[in-house]
Each structure stands twice: as structure tokens, then as C-alpha cells.
């Protein structure tokens, strides 16, 4: 729809072009009365005379039609369907998922596990596995139970290897345990000030 731009303003003929450039946008060259021009903003600009006044009108140009949609692909998917996910179970008593209950660690936890969700076996009253993907990456080995392992850190006051990094079953279905080692065979042990950093990086 055409709209007047400052139509109540008398515009001398010799400044019509300057007015149009200033008010209607850039990209208008050799603007003449009674002729439409398409500027860079895709607007049609017209100059006309009425009642002794020069007026500039602007209207948006119609948008170009959208490109045609590509033909739909007919045939089998490019990749096979995902393998069904196996549910966690207790490696002690074999309790399945319906006998496991979700809990969340306390915010006062000092092992980089504050507010972290986990599963607990109700019959055994024991921890089973974490309910997140922290500590799981491409460097983690796969266990004999065909689950990928999870990297975690031992507690500060543990009787054996405090603050040592180690691998456990990522789903809690077996009791696999392996200490993370450097290339020279030394144990990977972290410090208290690095635990929170490793947790924020989701490495443990």
C-alpha cells in the first residue's frame, strides 16, 4: 500500500532527488516525477505533483517467491536404526531398573559431585550408577559387559588410593574397576583444587 512521506512538505523541483534519497533510502538515481524506481531496500519510490506540491510515495516491492522444495528422498534411511538402550541394573543382586531409585547428591559434596543424580539399589541399599554422561568420552575403554566405562575420582579420605582417577562400568551392571595410568604406568592422581575443574569440564 502506498504511503506519503512528508507529503505536507513543499519540495522544490530541484531538490526532489535529494529528498527522495534522504527519506526513501539510498540507491535511487535520476529520480523523475511520475516514474517508479526500485531502491536497494526493495521499495518502489514515486515522485508526483499535486496542488502545487511535490510528494514522494514509497511502497514495498513484493517479495520474490521462495525456491522450490527439493524432491523428497524415497528409500531406506542412510543409517541403520539405533541399537536399543540397555537399562542399568545392580551388579550385586541383579535388581533391574524398576527396583532402582533415583537420588541426588547433597550440595555439600566435596568430590565434584554436588547436586548430581544417581541410581540406588533398594534391595541392597547401595549405589549403582550416575544418571548423566560425565566422565564418558572417546578415551574410555569398553568393558566385558559391552558398556562403555566412566572415569571418576576416588574420595579424599579413601583408605586405598585417595584422589586417584579410575574407570568403572558406565551403567553399573558389573563391578569392573581400573586405575587410570600414564604412559609410564604411573597412577593418575589429582588434587583437591583440580577436582571441581575436572567436574566442570565433565571429565569426571
Count of folded domains: 2
The residue-averaged pLDDT reads: 71
| Strand-residue proportion | 15-25%
What assembly state would you assign to the polypeptide chains in this entry?
single chain
- The rough form would be described as extended
Strand order of the largest sheet: 1-4-3-2
Largest sheet: number of strands, sense, barrel closure: 4 strands, antiparallel
Number of helices: 2
Distance between the termini: 62 Å
Number of strand elements: 10
Low-confidence stretches: 1-38, 71-85
Q: Classify the helix fraction into a percent range.
A: under 10%
Pfam family, one: Zn_ribbon_GRF_2
Biased composition (Pro residues): 62-83
Domain GRF-like zinc ribbon: 88-134
Region (Disordered): 56-83
Amino acid at each position: 500500500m502506498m504511503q506519503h512521506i512528508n507529503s505536507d512538505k513543499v519540495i522544490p523541483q530541484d531538490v526532489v532527488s535529494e529528498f527522495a534519497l534522504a527519506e526513501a533510502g539510498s540507491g535511487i538515481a535520476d529520480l523523475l516525477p511520475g516514474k517508479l524506481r526500485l531502491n536497494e531496500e526493495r521499495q518502489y519510490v514515486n515522485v508526483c505533483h499535486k496542488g502545487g506540491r511535490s510528494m514522494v510515495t514509497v511502497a514495498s516491492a513484493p517479495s520474490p517467491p521462495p525456491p522450490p522444495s527439493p524432491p523428497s528422498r524415497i528409500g531406506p534411511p542412510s543409517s541403520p536404526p539405533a541399537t536399543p538402550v540397555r537399562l542399568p541394573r545392580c551388579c550385586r543382586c541383579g535388581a533391574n531398573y524398576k527396583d532402582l531409585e533415583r537420588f541426588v547428591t547433597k550440595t555439600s559434596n566435596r568430590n565434584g559431585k554436588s547436586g548430581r543424580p544417581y541410581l540406588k539399589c533398594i534391595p541392597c541399599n547401595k549405589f549403582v550408577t550416575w544418571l548423566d554422561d560425565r566422565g564418558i568420552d572417546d578415551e574410555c575403554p569398553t568393558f566385558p559387559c559391552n558398556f562403555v566405562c566412566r572415569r571418576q575420582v576416588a574420595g579424599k579420605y579413601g583408605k586405598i588410593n585417595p584422589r586417584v582417577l579410575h574407570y568403572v562400568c558406565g551403567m553399573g551392571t558389573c563391578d569392573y574397576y581400573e586405575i587410570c595410568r600414564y604412559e609410564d604406568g604411573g597412577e593418575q592422581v589429582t588434587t583437591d583444587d583440580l577436582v571441581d575443574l575436572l567436574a566442570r569440564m565433565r571429565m569426571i
